[in-house]
Amino acid sequence: MFRVGLGHDTHRTIEGRPLILGGVTIPSDSGLDGHSDADVLLHAITDAILGAAGLGDIGEWFPDTSAEFAGADSGELLSRVMAEVAGQGWAVVNLDCTIFAERPKLSQHKQAIELKIAALLKVDPAAINVKAKTGERVGPVGRGEAMEAQAVVLLSKET
Ligand code: MG
Protein backbone atom coordinates (compact mmCIF):
# COMPACT_ATOMS: atom_id res chain seq x y z
CA MET A 1 0.00 0.00 0.00
CA PHE A 2 1.22 3.48 -0.85
CA ARG A 3 0.16 6.83 0.59
CA VAL A 4 1.26 10.32 -0.51
CA GLY A 5 1.41 13.32 1.83
CA LEU A 6 1.77 17.07 1.30
CA GLY A 7 3.25 19.67 3.64
CA HIS A 8 3.61 23.44 3.54
CA ASP A 9 4.83 26.01 6.06
CA THR A 10 5.62 29.72 6.32
CA HIS A 11 7.72 31.63 8.89
CA ARG A 12 8.50 35.33 9.11
CA THR A 13 12.13 36.39 8.91
CA ILE A 14 13.53 38.14 11.96
CA GLU A 15 16.92 39.43 13.06
CA GLY A 16 18.60 37.94 16.10
CA ARG A 17 17.66 34.29 15.62
CA PRO A 18 19.69 31.58 13.89
CA LEU A 19 18.50 30.35 10.50
CA ILE A 20 17.85 26.60 10.73
CA LEU A 21 16.65 24.83 7.59
CA GLY A 22 16.25 21.06 7.48
CA GLY A 23 18.06 20.78 10.80
CA VAL A 24 21.14 22.59 9.44
CA THR A 25 22.21 25.99 10.80
CA ILE A 26 22.82 28.26 7.80
CA PRO A 27 25.05 31.36 8.04
CA SER A 28 22.68 34.33 7.64
CA ASP A 29 22.13 37.84 9.01
CA SER A 30 18.53 36.94 9.87
CA GLY A 31 16.65 33.87 11.04
CA LEU A 32 13.04 32.79 11.32
CA ASP A 33 10.48 33.76 13.96
CA GLY A 34 8.39 31.09 15.66
CA HIS A 35 7.47 29.24 18.84
CA SER A 36 9.92 26.41 18.17
CA ASP A 37 13.29 26.72 16.41
CA ALA A 38 11.15 27.82 13.39
CA ASP A 39 12.66 25.26 10.99
CA VAL A 40 10.18 25.92 8.18
CA LEU A 41 11.45 23.00 6.09
CA LEU A 42 11.23 20.36 8.81
CA HIS A 43 7.73 21.60 9.67
CA ALA A 44 6.61 21.08 6.06
CA ILE A 45 8.25 17.65 6.01
CA THR A 46 6.64 16.66 9.32
CA ASP A 47 3.22 17.65 7.97
CA ALA A 48 3.81 15.71 4.75
CA ILE A 49 4.64 12.55 6.72
CA LEU A 50 1.71 13.00 9.10
CA GLY A 51 -0.56 13.56 6.12
CA ALA A 52 0.62 10.46 4.28
CA ALA A 53 0.12 8.35 7.41
CA GLY A 54 -3.31 9.87 8.07
CA LEU A 55 -2.18 11.20 11.46
CA GLY A 56 -3.36 14.82 11.36
CA ASP A 57 -0.98 17.77 11.39
CA ILE A 58 1.97 19.19 13.30
CA GLY A 59 -0.20 21.68 15.22
CA GLU A 60 -2.21 18.83 16.74
CA TRP A 61 0.94 16.97 17.74
CA PHE A 62 2.96 19.91 19.03
CA PRO A 63 0.69 22.87 19.90
CA ASP A 64 2.42 26.26 19.63
CA THR A 65 0.49 27.27 22.76
CA SER A 66 2.39 24.65 24.78
CA ALA A 67 5.41 25.80 26.80
CA GLU A 68 6.82 22.30 26.28
CA PHE A 69 7.56 23.17 22.64
CA ALA A 70 8.97 26.68 23.13
CA GLY A 71 12.30 26.75 21.29
CA ALA A 72 11.85 23.08 20.43
CA ASP A 73 14.33 21.31 18.15
CA SER A 74 12.17 20.56 15.09
CA GLY A 75 14.43 17.62 14.27
CA GLU A 76 13.48 16.09 17.61
CA LEU A 77 9.78 16.62 16.82
CA LEU A 78 10.19 15.03 13.39
CA SER A 79 12.03 12.07 14.93
CA ARG A 80 9.10 11.53 17.31
CA VAL A 81 6.63 11.60 14.42
CA MET A 82 8.80 9.27 12.34
CA ALA A 83 9.07 6.79 15.23
CA GLU A 84 5.26 6.66 15.47
CA VAL A 85 4.83 6.36 11.70
CA ALA A 86 7.47 3.62 11.43
CA GLY A 87 5.85 1.87 14.39
CA GLN A 88 2.64 1.72 12.36
CA GLY A 89 4.56 -0.12 9.62
CA TRP A 90 5.22 2.76 7.23
CA ALA A 91 8.50 3.23 5.36
CA VAL A 92 9.54 6.34 3.42
CA VAL A 93 9.84 5.63 -0.32
CA ASN A 94 11.05 9.14 -1.20
CA LEU A 95 10.69 12.75 -0.15
CA ASP A 96 10.93 15.85 -2.33
CA CYS A 97 10.84 19.39 -0.99
CA THR A 98 11.40 23.03 -1.93
CA ILE A 99 12.63 25.91 0.24
CA PHE A 100 11.52 29.41 -0.84
CA ALA A 101 13.95 32.05 0.40
CA GLU A 102 15.18 35.27 -1.20
CA ARG A 103 18.45 35.06 0.74
CA PRO A 104 20.86 33.63 1.66
CA LYS A 105 21.83 31.51 -1.32
CA LEU A 106 21.10 27.91 -0.37
CA SER A 107 22.67 25.99 -3.26
CA GLN A 108 25.83 25.13 -1.32
CA HIS A 109 23.78 23.89 1.67
CA LYS A 110 21.31 21.60 -0.11
CA GLN A 111 23.42 18.46 0.16
CA ALA A 112 24.02 18.92 3.90
CA ILE A 113 20.29 19.41 4.37
CA GLU A 114 19.54 16.24 2.39
CA LEU A 115 21.94 14.24 4.54
CA LYS A 116 20.41 15.63 7.75
CA ILE A 117 16.86 14.84 6.63
CA ALA A 118 17.92 11.33 5.60
CA ALA A 119 19.43 10.80 9.06
CA LEU A 120 16.28 12.07 10.80
CA LEU A 121 14.06 9.80 8.68
CA LYS A 122 16.56 6.90 8.82
CA VAL A 123 16.51 6.48 5.03
CA ASP A 124 19.10 6.39 2.25
CA PRO A 125 20.06 9.96 1.23
CA ALA A 126 19.18 8.98 -2.36
CA ALA A 127 15.52 8.99 -1.27
CA ILE A 128 15.69 12.69 -0.32
CA ASN A 129 15.70 15.65 -2.71
CA VAL A 130 15.97 19.29 -1.62
CA LYS A 131 15.33 22.19 -3.98
CA ALA A 132 15.67 25.92 -3.32
CA LYS A 133 14.08 28.89 -5.05
CA THR A 134 13.90 32.63 -4.52
CA GLY A 135 10.68 34.63 -4.61
CA GLU A 136 11.84 36.64 -7.64
CA ARG A 137 11.71 39.80 -5.47
CA VAL A 138 7.90 39.76 -5.30
CA GLY A 139 5.53 38.70 -2.51
CA PRO A 140 6.51 38.11 1.15
CA VAL A 141 9.29 35.70 0.18
CA GLY A 142 10.67 37.92 -2.57
CA ARG A 143 10.73 40.93 -0.23
CA GLY A 144 12.62 38.87 2.34
CA GLU A 145 9.79 39.08 4.88
CA ALA A 146 9.23 35.31 5.08
CA MET A 147 10.48 31.91 4.04
CA GLU A 148 8.27 29.06 2.95
CA ALA A 149 8.70 25.35 2.35
CA GLN A 150 6.77 22.64 0.56
CA ALA A 151 7.26 18.91 0.88
CA VAL A 152 5.75 15.80 -0.63
CA VAL A 153 6.44 12.30 0.63
CA LEU A 154 5.51 8.80 -0.46
CA LEU A 155 5.10 6.14 2.25
CA SER A 156 4.72 2.40 1.73
CA LYS A 157 3.45 -0.37 3.97
CA GLU A 158 3.37 -4.14 3.51
CA THR A 159 -0.21 -5.39 3.56
MG1 MG B 1 6.13 26.15 11.34
- Strand arrangement in the largest pleated sheet: 4-1-7-5-6
Which fold does the CATH topology refer to?
60s Ribosomal Protein L30, Chain: A
Give the N-terminus to C-terminus distance in angstroms.
6 Å
Beta-strand share of residues: 25-35%
Give the proportion of residues in helices: 25-40%
Radius of gyration from CA coordinates: 15 Å
3D shape? globular
Secondary-structure class: alpha+beta
Q: What is the N-to-C order of secondary-structure elements (H for helix, E for strand)? A: EEEEHHHEHEHE
Number of helices: 5
Q: How many domains? A: 1
CATH superfamily heading: 2-C-methyl-D-erythritol 2,4-cyclodiphosphate synthase
The CATH architecture term is 2-Layer Sandwich
Low-confidence stretches: none
Small molecules in complex: magnesium ion
**How many β strands by DSSP?**
7
Level-1 CATH class name: Alpha Beta
- Work out the oligomeric state of the chains in this entry: single chain
Main sheet, how many strands, which sense, barrel?
5 strands, mixed
The average pLDDT is: 96
What do you see in this structure?
This protein has 159 residues and is an alpha+beta fold. The chain has a single domain (2-157), classed as 2-C-methyl-D-erythritol 2,4-cyclodiphosphate synthase (60s Ribosomal Protein L30, Chain: A, 2-Layer Sandwich), CATH 3.30.1330. The protein has five helices and seven strands, in the order ββββαααβαβαβ. The strands form two sheets. Strands 4-1-7-5-6 form a five-stranded mixed β-sheet. The chain has a two-stranded antiparallel ribbon with strand order 2-3. Helix 1 runs parallel beside helix 3. The structure holds magnesium ion. Magnesium ion (MG) binds at residues 9, 11, 34, 40, 43.
